[in-house]
Design brief:
Layout (H helix, E strand, L loop, with lengths): L12 H5 L3 H17 L8 H13 L2 H13 L4 H6 L12 H24 L1
């Protein structure tokens, strides 16, 4: 076996080292969608929108990937980031309280549904 990589299906070894254009174009597209959907959002800081607009205008692919990653992992809103963690930390959701409340509300909801369906 030789240590050099051979060209397979039209891919050269130099192509494997650089990022593909599709990935970076996807990041730019995501940022454009984000900018258009949050353009008039009063809760989103204007600095963040300015940064997104600057990245899109400059077509900076590295910064677009980094910005897209940060927007996907953290909430855009300061108040949400302060109140809600973005990880579960291995906490269990299958608790007695969850089962009791779930069964209680399911029973009440189905009972009301049955009662009101008989009236019509």
């Amino acid at each position: 076996m030789s240590s050099s990589l051979s060209c397979v299906d039209g891919i050269s070894p130099s192509d494997l080292e650089r990022p593909t254009e599709d990935f970076t174009i996807g990041d730019i597209k995501d940022l454009r969608k984000f900018e258009s959907s949050h353009q008039w959002d009063p809760n989103l800081p204007q600095e963040k929108l300015d940064t997104i607009k600057e990245v899109i205008d400059n077509d900076d692919q590295e910064q677009a990937a980094e910005l897209d990653k940060s927007l996907a992992q953290d909430s855009q809103y300061e108040s949400v980031r302060a109140a809600v963690r973005n990880t579960d930390n291995g906490e269990v959701a299958n608790t007695l309280r969850a089962w009791v409340l779930g069964l209680l509300f399911t029973t009440i909801g189905s009972g009301l549904n049955m009662f009101l369906s008989m009236r019509s």
